[in-house]
Write a structure and sequence with these properties.
Length: 292
């Protein structure tokens, strides 16, 4: 089986290649070869690689910047996935497209299911929803996999790495406590994708995968510092102070509640997602040797 990973230099794509390499022929494609701001570049690459499965981990993820660059966000997140789908259909490949909790408005008080109405509140979420629609309405064999609050060892910045950097230099950090979701480690997301890809499940449509459990960004930050301290990370930090969203204004509105229900995919895979704190501990253990 030949699996093409788009966005292989990002944190999820990097992890997925590591997980799939032992069990599949993996062709990782980065921005140097596939620029999603130029969707016309997609079909020739797919025709050359001739994959059986395409996993699209590539995305425009600058949530605040998207408010000023809605056209670019729409091109990368909204238009390009449709081009992937058409090219996948011509190739006879299955497309697994990674999406986000930001397609919801965050007004729920229970986990979002795959059938709940979408209502993105910012340009990033709108662009990701547009991409979902393109894939779901295509004639390609397809899966849309939504996840949330993603972090990992690979790629550039994420919340965990930011907290570790701040905790090394500061005695106090202030973190939003009234936005709730589920921190999701790329290792666990990649393992779920690998199960889907390698087991040839006869599934199509939309699915959710995150780690299990619920946390605010404040809860997540406190756990990061507790686990990092136990592992011997260099920390100057003494206090994590909870604040409200209003005290930390951002250009783009974030969903206040973005917990995703994973029951549908759990029923397919026959396994439950690990708790988010277990994933955090594993990520930090893997990260520490890279910064020593």
């Amino acid at each position: 089986m030949r699996v093409m990973i788009a966005g292989v230099s990002g944190q999820l794509g990097w992890e997925l290649q590591r997980v799939l390499d032992p069990v599949a022929e993996v062709v990782g494609v980065g921005r140097d070869r596939l620029d999603l701001s130029q969707p016309r570049s997609i079909p020739p690459v797919i025709a050359e690689i001739r994959p059986d499965v395409i996993v699209n981990c590539a995305a425009y993820t600058a949530v605040d910047k998207a408010e000023h660059e809605p056209e670019l966000a729409q091109t990368v997140n909204g238009i390009a996935p449709g081009v992937f789908a058409k090219a996948a259909q011509r190739q006879g490949a299955t497309l697994l497209h990674v999406s986000t909790d930001y397609v919801f408005d965050g007004n729920h008080s229970r986990p979002y299911t795959e059938t709940d109405p979408t209502n993105p509140v910012g340009e990033y979420g709108k662009s990701k929803l547009a991409g979902e629609v393109e894939v779901l309405q295509s004639d390609a064999s397809h899966i849309v996999l939504r996840t949330a609050w993603v972090y990992g060892v690979g790629g550039r910045g994420n919340f965990v790495k930011t907290m570790l950097r701040l905790g090394k230099d500061r005695e106090e950090v202030r973190v939003v406590a009234d936005q709730v979701g589920t921190p999701s480690w790329t290792g666990d997301i990649a393992n779920a994708i690998a199960q889907i890809v390698t087991n040839h499940y006869d599934i199509e449509g939309t699915y959710h995968f995150t780690n299990s459990g619920v946390a605010s960004w404040y809860d997540f930050a406190v756990a990061i510092f507790e686990e990092a301290e136990a592992l011997g990370f260099p920390l100057k930090l003494k206090r994590v102070v909870p604040i409200t969203t209003a005290e930390y204004p951002t250009l783009a509105q974030r969903p206040a509640y973005s917990v995703l229900s994973g029951k549908k995919l759990e029923g397919v895979l026959g396994t439950f997602a690990p708790h988010w704190r277990v994933g955090l501990r594993q990520m930090l253990a893997a990260l520490k040797p890279t910064i020593e």
